[in-house]
Amino acid sequence: MGDFWVFGYGSLIWRPGFAHVETSRARLFGYRRALCVASYVHRGTPERPGLVLGLDRGGSCVGLAFRVPGNLRDEVMAALRARELVTNVYLERVLPVRLATGETVHAVCYIVDRAHEQYAGALDIEHAAARVSGAAGQSGPNEQYVLNTVEHLKALSIRDHWLEAVASRVSG
Fold first, then answer.
1. Which end of the chain is more exposed for a tag (fewer CB within 10 A), N or C?
2. Is 57 helix (H, G, I), strand (E, B) or coil?
3. How many CA atoms lie within 13 A of 54 on its CB side?
């Protein structure tokens, strides 16, 4: 099998955790980056759930596409599934993304399952910030996750005004 692509929009951007031979800025149409997944383990607890990112329907999302050598397919897909499908709140899909070069490739994407109990829905900035503030889990404070994501997006000149507004409210 040939090389394949993986689309990152959140922590995969700053911590892909798998071998790849090329990285390109990319846009996924039909989905947007959103703090729409309740986190009961990594960034929250069952008593005080935090929020993590998901790809939710509507709009488009700029992120990074990673080209993975075909000979690493089984290894990389196993690692991605172990990371992204722990509670099955994400659905694995292969969707077209447009690279910075204008080329369209098909990439593995993880979109939120709106029927899953962890789907938090479309939250406004104030409600999202309130859910993030003070939540913490095994991977640390929820605020840290949001601020780190915004910092990495800005470093790549990727603007996400909604997420930036949430970050400004949780950073004080």
1. C
2. strand
3. 28
Q: How confident is the model at residue 172 (pLDDT cuts 50, 70, 90)?
A: low
Contact between residue 31 and residue 56 where contact means Cβ atoms under 8 Å apart: yes
Domains, the chain, with CATH or none: 4-170 (3.10.490.10)
- Two tokens, residue 92: 């694995």
Length reported for the chain: 172
27-70 tens-digit pLDDT: 999 999 999 999 998 899 999 999 999 999 999 999 999 999 99
3-state secondary structure of 92: strand
> What DSSP designation does 80 have?
H
> pLDDT band for position 96 (50/70/90)?
very high
d(CA 56, CA 145): 18
